[in-house]
Specification:
- The chain is α/β, with parallel strands linked by helices and 329 residues long.
- Helix content is 31%, strand content 26%.
- The strands form three sheets. Strands 3, 5, 6, 7, 8, 15 and 16 form a seven-stranded mixed beta sheet that branches. Strands 11-10-9-12-13-14 form a six-stranded parallel beta sheet, sandwiched between helices. The chain has a three-stranded antiparallel beta sheet with strand order 2-1-4, with no helix packed on it.
- Helix 4 links the parallel strand 10 and strand 11.
- Helix 2 crosses helix 3 and helix 2 crosses helix 8.
- The protein starts with a strand and ends with a strand.
């Protein structure tokens, strides 16, 4: 089969497009023909060695997928010919998804609704599960609460925005350009602002004088002073980025307000927790409350180019990527 893989961690250009043997399916696994894969920042961190993990040799890159079941165990809930999607591949010793065929444990696989395109399912996978875990498992968001999401047009940020609205929360969003601010409003944000504005926090305070209930931080260099100042009593901060960040932390205001700081990593969530996220996501993808903007689409032999674009956008800030990257084998 054709695949995009590396032999050792390195730059995007270390990704090889070539032939690998078909994966060997264990008796419990599903064999899936991949029709779409997605690129996430974590994919570039693993490929580049910034996140050290056990990697098969050679290692196929990619976490997310959509496709069609080719083979399934006789007692499986899935069957040959069924459309499916999933995530949580390419990590913790598992092979990735940027290839023509994958073997996957059924606990990481979800049925694709007839109304949902494969590109959309793959693009929503990791970012949607991440948003769901942070909002509902950790922050325990309730209808009527106020959420501030930093980077409301990013993959995770946009999912946070839509999911919070789906359950009746009020959403305040930030973005890095005026065009992205407009995109946040179009996606359903109640208020949005360019976070480069010097008076961003002052404007936020004018909109919600009592503060926000949940501050969702997507920045690699978070301003925790500003976040804590913007929180209501018993507010929650969600952290899922900034692996090397060591920002100052306002201990006094934080504990006096009885706030909580919640950090999490999506791929360490249990299969059952991710399954619950996928069930809600399928329902919202069908009824239109959740959608994913696809910024660029590449073929499998262009995976290195896709990784470079993702890295330039996430780490170097030199690319104007808006939306997810999808790869079609």
């Amino acid at each position: 089969m054709k695949a995009a893989f590396i032999r050792q961690p390195g730059p995007a250009e270390s990704i090889v497009y070539g032939d690998l043997p078909l994966p060997l399916r264990s008796p419990q696994q599903l064999l899936i023909q991949v029709t779409a894969a997605a690129v996430n920042p974590i994919d570039t961190y693993i490929r580049g060695g910034a996140v050290a993990m056990e990697l098969p040799q050679p290692f196929v890159v990619g976490c997310d997928f959509a496709g069609v079941v080719v083979e399934a165990p006789n007692d499986s809930a899935f069957h040959a010919g069924q459309r499916v999607w999933g995530s949580n591949q390419g990590i913790l010793g598992r092979q990735g998804t940027c290839c023509e065929t994958i073997a996957v444990d059924p606990c990481w696989v979800y049925p694709t609704p007839d109304e949902v395109a494969d590109d959309a399912a793959a693009a929503a996978a990791l970012v949607g599960i991440t948003a769901h875990l942070g909002l509902f498992r950790d922050a325990r968001l309730q209808a009527g609460e106020i959420v501030l999401v930093q980077g409301g047009t990013g993959g995770v940020g946009n999912s946070v925005l839509q999911m919070a609205k789906a359950v009746g929360a009020k959403v305040m969003a930030t973005a890095g350009t005026d065009e992205k601010v407009a995109a946040c409003l179009e996606a359903g944000a109640d208020w949005a602002i360019n976070y480069h504005a010097e008076d961003f926090l002052d404007q936020l305070r004018a909109q919600v004088p009592d503060g926000v209930d949940v501050w969702w931080e997507t920045s690699r260099n978070p301003n925790l002073d500003g976040a804590v100042a913007a929180l209501k009593r018993r507010g929650r901060i969600i952290l899922m980025a900034g692996r090397d960040a060591k920002p100052p932390f306002p201990v006094g205001p934080f504990y006096v307000k009885e706030c909580r700081l919640l950090g999490f990593v999506m791929f360490l969530a249990t299969a059952a927790e991710q399954q619950r996220a996928a069930e809600d996501m399928n329902r919202w993808l069908v009824d239109g409350r959740l959608s994913t903007t696809i910024g660029r689409t590449f073929t499998l032999d262009q995976t290195a180019v896709a990784h470079r674009l993702q890295e330039d956008s996430t780490i170097h800030g030199t690319a104007t990527l808006q939306g997810k990257i999808v790869i079609r084998p």
